[in-house]
Amino acid sequence: MDYRAAKHFILAKLRTELSDKLLYHGLHHTLDVLQAAKFLCESEGVHGHLAVLVKTAALFHDAGFVHNKHAGHEYEGCVMARAALPGFGYSKDDIETICGMIMSTKIPQSPTNLLEEIICDADLDYLGRDDFFAIGTSLFEELAAYNLLHGEQAWNRLQVNFLSAHHFHTHTNKTLREPVKQQYLAILKDLVATY
Q1: Which of 77, 120, 139, 179 could form a disulfide with 109 if both were Cys (CB 3.0 to 4.6 A apart)?
Q2: Which structural domains are found in the chain, ordered by start?
């Protein structure tokens, strides 16, 4: 299994094929999720072969955005993983584990094991970080660019609903990110109450 070659392949594809309109779901998001996934693997005691599968899933989890559509990008990412990863020595079982992780990130998230919990928490790690508002702004601008959302009030209402429904899955992020996320939710609820 040649993780480095698989990483090089998918990052090159994302770098050249993702739309400039993807202000949130760009290459930077994939790299951010990869870093969060590495941290969570370490924190949650996932090492070796399984950690490589998590990192691979992080790299492919939003690869379906090369088709420039929001709906169904997880499925498209799995199609790409199934097509590309055998060429890098990944077994069929490993690829199915990776696709399980990718599909679990579909909103609402539905992880069924620790690896899926890690990738789900890595994908939305920013919800409980200092860069929450900056990253959120990039998502707002992306959704507006695709005509999926209209206006700041609609965005803030969406954020309140999303944060209220969301929960972290790993022990690490329940401890580290959830309290911070709750602070942001309170700020947004106060803001929405003024509308």
Answers
A1: 120
A2: 3-193 (1.10.3210.10)
